Amino acid sequence: MAGVIGWDEDVPTGVLIGLTPLGGEAVAAEVKKDRTSGHMELLHVMVVDDDEAVRKACCEIAGRLGCVVVGAGNATAAQAILKDHQIDLILLDLKLPGGGGMALLEQVKMLHPETAVVVMTAFATVSSAVEAMRIGASDYLTKPFALEDLTLVLERAGQRHHMDVQSRQLRERLRTQQGVSGLVGQSPEMEKLYRILSKVAFSTHPVLILGESGTGKELVARSIHFNGTNAAKPFIAVDCGSLVPTLIESELFGHVKGAFTGADRAKEGLLATADGGTVFLDEIGELPLDLQSKLLRALQEKEVRPVGATQARPISARVLAATNRDLATMVEQGRFRKDLYFRLNVVNLRIPPLRNRREDIAPLAMHFLAKMQKETGAERVFSDDTLRMMIEYDWPGNVRELENAIERACALSSGPVLHMGDLPTQLQDFRMQRGGSSVANGMEQADEDNDLAAPKAGIVSIAELEKKAIMDTLRQLNGDKLMAARLLGIGKTTLYRKLKEYGIAEA
Ligand SMILES: Nc1ncnc2c1ncn2[C@@H]1O[C@H](COP(=O)(O)OP(=O)(O)OP(=O)(O)O)[C@@H](O)[C@H]1O
C-alpha cells in the first residue's frame, strides 16, 4: 500500500502519519519515481497545518521533490512568513483552530493573488473544499490522502507555477519590445494582446486571430509559436485565400500516389509535416465548406486522411487561424461551419486597427526607419510635420501600409530628413484635405517660435497665410528652397518671386 497522510484514526500521531509502512527511503524512492517535472526546485512551498505530524510529512515530501519548504502551525505564523517570504504555493489545512483556514485563504487571495493555495480537508467537509475553490484555491486534497496524491498536486502546482513565470517573463519581453517576433507597440490595446498572447503561447489550443488586413495577424501567430514550448518545431503558414480548393486539400491533408492526375508520388500534408509545430491558416474564412468539415474532423480526431487514402494518419500540429472577415456573420449566413468556428474560437485574439491605437504609430514608424537604416546603412529622421501627419492619418492598410510608406519615403528622399512630400499620394491627399487646419497649426508654431506678425484681431489675410506658410516651411527645411517649393506645391520660380514679394528673400 502506498503511504497515507492524515489517517489519524488507527495510526499514532507524532510520526509521518500513515507513511510508516513505506519508511524514509521508500518515501524518497516513491517520490523520485513519481517525479515527472523538472520545475519543482523553483517552487517555494508553505505547509499550514496545526497537526504537526501531517505538517512534517507534507514538508518532507515537498522537500524531497526539490521544493523550498517552510511549515506553519497556525494562521498567525503563516501570515508572518508571508510578510517576509515569497511563497508560490500554500498547502493549507482548512480546519485550523478558530476556523482560521478559510479566513487565511481569503486573505492570501487578496494580498498575494499570485500565490497558489491547495486546501486540505477532512472527507466529511468536502463542501468546504468546494467553497475554498470558489474563493480561489487551485486544488484540494481530501484527508487522508495518499502520497501519490500529494506528489501529483505538487507536480501540477509546479508546472502551473513554471508556466505562470514563463508567461510573466514573455509578457515583459513583449512589453519591452524584446519579443522574438518583433511586435512593436505599447498602447493599452497591445498590452492587452500581450497578456493573452503570453498565456496562449504555452498551451496547444487553437487560437483565432482577428483583425483588419495588415494589422499583424501573421506576426502575432509567429510570436505565439516562437515564444511557445514547441518553438523548435516547424511553423507553417498556409494562405487559404490564394490557393485553389483542390490544392489546399492536398497541401493540408496530403495525398497518396495516383490520387488525382499529376499525383505521381505520395505527398505528406502540412498538418502532418508540422509534427508538433504550428500550422497557421491565414484567411480561414476563404476555406470552402467541404474542407471546413475535413479540417474540423482533423482537429477533433487529431488525425488526417490524405486524398485518396483509406487509412487516417495521426497529427500533432497546433492550428492557429486568422481572418479579417466577420466569421460570426458568416456562420449566421451558413458560409462558415458553426462547429468549426467554435472549435477554432476557443481563444480569440483581436488586433485593433492602427487608427484605434495611434500611440503605436510613432514607435512603429521609428522601428521601420531603424529597419531601413540597417538594410541600407543610410541614417534618416522624420521631419516634425511628417511624423505629425503620420499620426493623424487613418492608415486603412494598417501597419503594412505604414511600413510600405516608410520604405517608399526612404527610397525617394534625397536627404537625411524625410518630408511630407516623400510620403505616398494617399497621405498627400489627406494632407490637402486637412490643409486648412495644418496651415493653422503651422502658424501657431511659427508664432511661438518666430514671433511673426500674427494679426491679433483673428482675421488673417491670404497673403499673410501664404507668407507664414513659406516662412515656416523654409525654417523647417533649414532654408532648402527646392524642397520647400516641392512641399508647398509650387514651382521654384514662383517661390523665388514670392520670397521677393514678401521681403523674405534672406530666409
Ligand atoms: N506590432 C507590430 N510590430 C512590428 N511590425 C508589425 C506589427 N504589426 C504588423 N507588423 C508588420 O506589418 C506587416 C503586416 O503584418 P502581417 O502580415 O502580420 O499582417 P496581417 O494582419 O497578417 O495581414 P493580412 O491580413 O493582409 O494577411 C508585416 O511586415 C509585419 O511585420
Automatic annotation (TrEMBL):
Modification 4-aspartylphosphate, positions: D93
Record-level GO BP terms: phosphorelay signal transduction system; regulation of DNA-templated transcription
Q: Where is the Response regulatory domain?
A: 44-158
Q: Does the keyword NADP apply?
A: no
Does the entry feature the keyword Zinc, yes or no?
no
This protein's source sits in the domain of life called Bacteria
Q: Which SUPFAM superfamilies match?
A: CheY-like (SSF52172), Homeodomain-like (SSF46689), P-loop containing nucleoside triphosphate hydrolases (SSF52540)
Keywords tagged on the record? ATP-binding, DNA-binding, Nucleotide-binding, Phosphoprotein, Transcription, Transcription regulation
The protein's matches in CDD domains, at most eight in alphabetical order, are given as: AAA
Q: Which InterPro entries match?
A: AAA+_ATPase (IPR003593), AAA_lid_NorR (IPR058031), CheY-like_superfamily (IPR011006), Homeodomain-like_sf (IPR009057), HTH_Fis (IPR002197), P-loop_NTPase (IPR027417), Sig_transdc_resp-reg_receiver (IPR001789), Sigma_54_int (IPR002078)
- Check the record and name the PROSITE patterns matching this protein: RESPONSE_REGULATORY, SIGMA54_INTERACT_1, SIGMA54_INTERACT_2, SIGMA54_INTERACT_3, SIGMA54_INTERACT_4
Q: Which GO terms describe its molecular function?
A: ATP binding; sequence-specific DNA binding
Show where the Sigma-54 factor interaction domain sits: 183-411
Q: Which residues form the signal peptide?
A: none
Gene3D superfamilies for the chain: 1.10.8.60, 3.40.50.2300, Homeodomain-like, P-loop containing nucleotide triphosphate hydrolases
Record-linked PANTHER family: TRANSCRIPTIONAL REGULATORY PROTEIN (PTHR32071)
Q: Per its record, how is this protein called by name?
A: Acetoacetate metabolism regulatory protein AtoC
Please tell me the species this chain comes from. Edaphobacter dinghuensis
Q: Which gene encodes it?
A: pilR
